[in-house]
Amino acid sequence: MKILFVEDDPSFANALLISLRARGNEVSHVATGGNAISKFLTGHFDVVVLDLGLSDMDGIEVLKRIRSKSNTPIVVLSARVGEVSKVDALDAGADDYVTKPFGLGEFLARLRAAHRRGSPGPTDRVLKVGSRMIDLSSKQIVTDDGRPPKLTPTEWALMEVLALENNRIVSREELLRRVWGENFTHEYDYLRVYIAQLRRKIEDDPATPAYIITESGVGYRLMAEVVVKD
Ligand code: CA
Fold first, then answer.
1. Exposure check for the chain: N or C terminus, fewer CB within 10 A?
2. Judgement on whether residues 37 and 63 belong to the same structural domain of the protein
3. How far apart are the CA of 165 and the centre of ligand 1, in A?
4. How far is the CA of 10 from the centre of ligand 1 (A)?
5. What are the E-state strand segments in 13-168?
6. Ligand 1 centre and the CA of 197: distance in Å?
7. 32 CA to middle of ligand 1, Å?
8. Which domain, by its residues, includes 100?
9. 108 and 13 inside one domain
10. Left (φ > 0), alpha (ψ -120 to 50) or beta: where does 58 sit?
11. How far apart are CA 163 and CA 124, in angstroms?
């Protein structure tokens, strides 16, 4: 993988750089948010690994700037503990969140999963929700007003599972497993954040969802009209 690695702690950065490069990844390392943004804009990366605690700017701000330009998967690293910054990071468009200290094996698994979600296999399915069309093959939402919402890779991965199981209740555990992987089947926070984001992007009234339905205590169900099947 081509990785942009943003970390200001030199000893931590060096240790992770050695591990990532030893496994055949091509890693560009920068130590500031400003350099991260300029490096990102001038290169092509499969995944961004972003430390939230940077010296020149808040990592969340870096995350938002990168996300406003691109759907490249972003895995956030943080020493901050607690739900607030985790939800903030996911809300700002992070694909995953790893708290330091972490095991290298798990970290690499999460990187690979984020990369996979960024380049999933094709499906030709097109669905209709209200006035919007969801085209899974081109990964586009088509709207009448010509201002379609943009979905991140993780939002598309979740949308795709719901769409492939259209009209069927998909349990929270199954959604977490199919989108994030086996080790994440209890990360209900992830789902809560991402379902809310999807609703903001595809529902006419996100506060009273008509298409992404909560099946209380069980999971979620998409109620869309299938226009093109696979
Ligand atoms: Ca740091």
1. C
2. yes
3. 41
4. 9
5. 26-30, 47-51, 74-78, 96-99, 126-129, 132-135, 140-142
6. 28
7. 9
8. 2-117
9. yes
10. beta
11. 11
| Residue 120: predicted pLDDT | 54
For residues 191 and 176, the answer to whether their CB atoms sit within 8 Å is yes
Evaluate if residue 176 carries a pLDDT over 90.
yes
pLDDT bin (cut points 50, 70, 90) of residue 151 is very high
* Share above pLDDT 70 across residues of the chain, in percent, rounded to a whole number: 94
Nearest by Cα to 153 from 93, 86, 211, 203? 93
Which of 117, 143, 166 lies at the terminal end of a domain, its last residue?
Answer: 117
Stated pTM of the model: 0.62
80 CA → ligand 1 middle, Å? 10
Last residue of a domain, one of 117, 134, 169: 117
- CA 36 to ligand 1 centroid distance, Å: 13
Q: Which amino acid belongs to residue 111? A: L
Helix (H, G, I), strand (E, B), or coil: what is residue 223? coil
Using the structure block, give the residue that is written with the tokens 């995944």: 47
- Say how many Å lie between the CA of residue 7 and the centre of ligand 1: 6
What residues pack around ion ligand 1 (CB closer than 5 A)? Answer: 8-9, 51, 53
pLDDT score of 170: 92
d(CA 17, CA 10): 10
CATH number at residue 209: 1.10.10.10
Residue 78 Cα, ligand 1 centroid: separation in angstroms? 8
**pLDDT computed for residue 82 by the predictor:** 65
Name the nearest CA neighbour of 47 among 23, 71, 15.
71
- Check residue 183 and give its pLDDT: 86
Q: Which two tokens stand for residue 107?
A: 């970290």
